[in-house]
Amino acid sequence: MPVRKLESTPGFLVTDLADAPVAVGVVRAAPKVLVDGAELLARATTYAFATFGVQAGGASVGLNTPPEEKAEAIGRFVAEIGAEVAAGTLHLSPGTGVTDADLAPLGAAPVDASLTPAGAVAAAVAFLGGDLAGRPAVVHAPGPWAGRLGPVWAAAGGGTVEEGGPDADTEVLFVAGKAGVIDHHVAEGVQARLVVPLTPVPVTAKAYAVLGRASTTFVPDAVALAAPLLAVADPGGGDPLERVRGVAAAMAPHGADAWRAMVERAESFLAGWQDTLPYGRPLT
């Protein structure tokens, strides 16, 4: 995976597919942003696009800067990368430590954040057979995710949405956090029948195996989180939420094997326009 060292400030730009027409990702700023994590985020985005038949790749930027120097570092980065964004070959949105205002000088609209909970709910509805029937849900996530998710869940026919732990006694569990927030130890306590991601790559490979043995379905993040990506990279492809519903409905019959079905679908598409498949799948 190409990793480019930035010239203007300490940091790097990861682009998963060197020949993709456009690379889409986030910018994160912290005293130490790890390349491995950035590569994982980029790979997850690549597989999301491939799952929906879109020729685009993932990207991820890490700005290694102390808080007191962050504004200056972001300014230098924006100046260095601006021509690529203007040319349409790179689209970047704020991640951890970065705001919309920070990247505004790039002139590219950030992804529509409202499409994240809406897409996750659309995917969940499809996996539940198209009818929420007043089902409650639990959100295991930092920050205001329950407040963002609740109105969307209710509008789709669901019941209450409450914050809770990963071992909550619920049929539907939404999860968010750092990559691998659900490891195999945590997965052993999951009681939900359906685990729905709100952020990329929330389960580890071992956790996925634990969930599978318990017949718990993990909705692939490549499906649940695709809506805002599709709106950016393939706006002419149709309503992103309808596209999520359609692909999720196709994945749902696979149940606990839905993630593997997603991988097969994505890699079949990638093989049609890449000389070789990217090395490594989007799972920690």
Can you offer a commentary on this structure?
- By secondary structure, the protein is α/β, with parallel strands linked by helices.
- The model has no long low-confidence stretch (mean pLDDT 96).
- It has two domains: 3-106, 3-Layer(aba) Sandwich (Rossmann fold); 115-258, NAD(P)-binding Rossmann-like Domain (Rossmann fold).
- The radius of gyration is 18 Å and the shape is globular.
- The strands form two sheets. The protein has a five-stranded mixed sheet with strand order 1-2-4-3-5. It has a five-stranded parallel sheet with strand order 7-6-8-9-10, with helices on both faces.
- The protein has helices spanning 35-51, 70-86, 100-103, 115-127, 145-155, 184-187, 205-213, 221-224, 226-233, 240-251, 258-271, and strands spanning 3-5, 11-15, 23-30, 57-64, 90-94, 137-140, 161-163, 172-175, 194-197, 217-218.
- Helix 7 links the parallel strand 9 (194-197) and strand 10.
- The chain has eleven helices and ten strands.
- 40% of the residues lie in helices and 16% in strands.
